[in-house]
Amino acid sequence: MGEVVLPRRMFLWCMAVIYLTAFVSLYVQIPGLYGNEGLLPARWQLRYSGKPLVEQLLSSPTLLWLGPRLGLDTHTAMELLCLIGAALSLAATLVEAFRDSVVFFCLWVLYLSMYEVGQVFLYFQWDNLLLETGFLCILVAPLTLIGGSRGVREHDRVTFWLTRWLLFRLMFASGVVKLTSRCPTWWGLTALTYHYETQCIPTPLAWFAHQLPVCWQKLSVVGAFVIEIAVPFLFFSPLRRLRLGAFYLQVLLQVFIILSGNYNFFNLLTVTLCLSLLDDRHVYFWLRKAYKTDNGNDGMKLHCTLWSWLCYLLELVVWALLIVGTIICFDLQLDTAKKGISSRTAFTYHQFNLFLKTVTIPCIWIGVLSLTWEMVTSLFRCACVSGFFKRFWGTVQWTVFAGAAASMFAVSLVPFTFIEYDSNSRLWPGVRQAYEMVDRYQVVNSYGLFRRMTGVGGRPEVVIEGSSDGVTWTEIEFMYKPGNLSAPPPVLTPHQPRLDWQMWFAALGPNTQSPWFTSLMYRLLQGKRDVVELIQSDVSQYPFHQQPPAYLRAHRYRYWFTESKADGSFPERWWRRVYDEEFYPIVHLGNSFLEGMLNQYGLKDKSPPRRLSNTTVAQAVRWVRSQVRGVPAHTLIWTLIACSATFCLLQGLRHKSKDAEKPSDAHKATATDRTENAADGSSSDHHEKSDEQQADEEADKEADSEDEVEEEGEEENEVDEEDEDEERIEKR
């Protein structure tokens, strides 16, 4: 694989942007989710028992234990940590020096601190993925803030390889679990006929995608299986164009998901991991810049030409095998009657399970060989460094980071083999013990989204209704999740409204499976503003903003996308629905059922919260909160991203203009020197110039104009010509 300097820099910048998104998105929701009057107060997760700080950190690794030492309650400390994380990540997007191992370590610790007390609202796979990728950033990023260099290190390719291995685990597992779950919609290739309308928060384009013919929906499922299960093996191909093809296929899948669904920063993070498949040469191609390579002599060129043709043939064979395998496994046939391509799953669960058992261990060996190759080539590069001390220091660094990469790879084998337990049982016991030691820090995780397709009989949706008299009921409309039949689906990526997401999970089962829902009803009856802002950031849009409802209830409905009309025109509404059942009975403050549920789940305060702190830090945190209150989170996030991107773009244009000015300044200086020399020569000559002298001067001028467009390597010839001019003048 070629140099990865530019992809690595792009990866670190994108990670800084994703961290910024995650911290700002969470910060906006902290009061309603984790405040003292929120749904699940974070202070309940921290029991101050008087133990030493080290023991508290070992029991629950979060910096929130330091809150009381700063005079802050848990809620304010969470906001402070989020603000620090957002500030650090914003600085990292603006200044390259802040894309440093120390900064990424701080960002990882800060997000882990939030995760430890986040409870059900932070238990998503993308939170785990962000923590694992963020930990890899500590190894990938340079160490510059303490006097290091931002230059290329010989072990960079080894540490950057870990992101490629993580991408392989993520994509391969995401495809495999869809089939190991035995979900009939995935096996029948009909999952996408339900997916667009049943996903948590669809986009407007999801409505249009839902209208596509069934044959195209099934073909899309086939494409997803190929991209997620077969294509990831190309990540480790020694052939560069195969890796680039895998890159574009993965990005294509993620772009389609982003366009049809609001999955916060998850797909952006996946695209960021895909940067590990690129090299400098391809990034230069994007930038329309020439990539300098050593072409060598004619014999070397002939050898490269032959090798290039051989690579072309091998690549054609691989793509042909991939296409033929897809046709066979999914029985693809041209259906002229329906004017489409018919497809079906042409293998059984037993055959797929046998395939999985066959390839899981070889996948590990492919990773071992690929990592070993990167280590060996990096060690060779260290040995080629000039200077004993540089060579020695580079070898020491290689030893440390190669050991860290090998350890991370070994530990990751445990969650990777969860997809096939026979392979998991064959792992070395020492590897499993190491995994158990680091499991609580979310350094490595198992993945696999959309194992089973929900909402086959219609999208279940919980609708909360409030009343002041118990007779007239008003629906409480959420800002993002479906409710109002006429409201278009929102576009809010990369923000994640965590309450709206949990409402989607709550609708899949009874209310007893979602204890936090009882807390939501309780806080709405109390009229807590922080919780109301989770539903509507503009409180005036909340139907009970003047006075809390006296009664609340919740019903479950079944939602479907509307269909386009026969004449091709669009319907007036986006959704249609039918009543399903009661989800939560009518409750009011003091209601026996509500009180019983609160006591059963431990949702009532057993001890009063800490008194409001008036320290300078606490006042500063509250001031920042007052400035952003009422601003929609996705608007705030995109404003910060746009400002950061604009600043980086202007910075790049400024550097480009400076680089363009340097050669022009050099040409001007050369021309000025020549003019001065000519003036000195003419002042010493008081006689008319002969025709021969004039011809010589004209020839000299033409030579000078040609020299101005020559390369810097011809400067010596210019000096010789100027010496000849001086000799002729002296003769005259």
Automatic annotation (TrEMBL):
It comes from Astatotilapia calliptera (Eastern happy). This is Lipase maturation factor. Keywords: Endoplasmic reticulum, Glycoprotein, Membrane, Transmembrane, Transmembrane helix. It comes from the Eukaryota. The chain crosses the membrane at residues 12-30, 76-95, 102-123, 129-146, 219-239, 251-278, 306-334, 354-376, 396-419. It is a multi-pass membrane protein. It is found in: Endoplasmic reticulum membrane. Involved in the maturation of specific proteins in the endoplasmic reticulum. Residues 693-732 have a biased composition (Acidic residues). The keyword Transmembrane helix applies. Belongs to the lipase maturation factor family.
